[in-house]
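Entry:
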Amino acid sequence: MNSRNPAASPAPSHHGTAVLEPAEGVSPLGVPLDRHREWYHYHHLFRDLLGAELRSSDPELVQELHARAAAWCEANGLPELAIDHAQAAGDADRVARLVESLAFPAYASGRAQTARRWFQWFEDQGLVDRYPLIALQGAFLQVLAGQPQDIERWAAAAERGLAATTLGRSGPTEPWMALLQALLCRDGVGQMRADAQTAAAGLAPGSPWWATALLLQGVADVLAGETGRADPLLAHAAEVAIHVGALPTAAAALAQRALVAIDRHDWTLAETLAERALRITRAGQLNDYEMSPLIHTVAARAALHRGDIPRAQDHLARAVRLRPRLTAAMPLRAVQTLLELARAYLGLSDVAGARLLLREARDILRRQPRLGHLPTQADQLQSQLDTLRETPASAPRLTTAELRLLPLLSTHLTFREMSERLYVSPHTVKSQALSVYRKLGVSSRSQAIQRLQQTGLLAI
C-alpha cells in the first residue's frame, strides 16, 4: 500500500495501493518512498484494517471518501482508479464520463475484459438506459464478443435512452448508432456501407472509432466485390488505427487487405499483409480477439500456397480453437472466416472438414442472407465440394452448437469453464459433449479428440 502521510482520510485504494491525505505532525507507520517523506509504503493488511475500522465506526463516511478519492485520482492522472472509486461512491455520471473515453483504449490494448467489467457495472446498477452512449459502446463490445442475446439487450437500451434524452456533453449519437448498425450488417451490404459512411462523417477524425468506421466501409466494399475501392480504404483504416493505437482495427484491416490480395492472386502480398496482422496481434496481446481466426486462416492459406503444410496446420489449429467466437452475432465476420477456413481445409484435401465448415456458414446465412457476395461464394464452394469424394475418415453430422464446442474439447478446460466461454449452462455443455461422443463412436474425451483430428474437425 503506497500512501502519503496518513492523516484524516484514506483515499484511493486498488490492488493494495492507497493514498492518504497528509496532516501536519503525523508520523507515518510505513516505509518512506521519497526524500520529502510525503509518500509511504504500507502493507495491504494495514489498508484492510483501516478500511474495516472506518466501516465499523463511521459507515456513512465511506462513500464520501470514495467520492473524494475518485476526484483525486481523476485530477492526478489515475482515471482507471477513479472509475473504481466512483463506482464505490455511486457517482454514475463520473463513471460514465470516464468509461466513455477509456473503454475503447482498454479494448484496443488487449484488455477487453476490463472494458466489459466497466459496462457490466451499469447493467448491474440498472443504469444502462440513462447513458445511451454507454449502451451503444457496450453493445459494440458485445458484438465483438459474439453474444447475440447481450447485443439485443444493450442495443435496445441504447435506443430507449436515445428516445428519452440527448447526450449534451457527448454530442449527437447518430454516428454511434450508425457504427453499431454497420457492424451488425442486418440490412444488407449497401446499408452497411451507408451506415459506416454516416459514422465516419460524424465521429472525430483520427479517433479509434473513426478508424473502425473506415474499416467497416472497406469491409462492405469487399463483401460487395468492389475490391478496387476497398483496398485503399482499408489501407487508410490500418494506417489511422496504428497511429491512434487501435490495434484490433489495424489487424482486421490488414486481414481484409490480405483477402483482397488473394482474390487478385497476389499471394506474396497476401502473406506479407497476414504477417503484419499477426505481428500486431502478438504485440497487442490480441490472440483471443474476434479478428484472430480470420488472420490465422488467411496466413494458413498463404502458407498452403507456398507449400508449407506444417505452418498452415499450425495456423489452422489456432483458428479452429477460436471458432466458438464465429457466431451470428457478427454474421459477416463469421461467414467470411468459415468460408476461408473451408477453403484451407480443402487445400489440405480434407473434404469432410471443409463440408462441415461450409454447413456451419450456411446455417448463419439462412438467418442473415444479405451479406453481399458471401452467399454466392458459399454456393460456388458447395459446387466444388460436390464434385469431390470425402476422405476415408468421413465425419459425422454435428449440430452447429456441437461444432462450436469442438475446439474447447481439445483444451484443459472443464465443462463448467467451457460453459462460461460459450455462455450456456454446464449441463448443456455436458449434453453436447456426450452427443459428440456418441456420434463419433467413442466413450471418452481423449478418444473424441483423436477421432476429431482424424476427421479433420480439429487441426493437428
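The longest helix spans residues 227-244.
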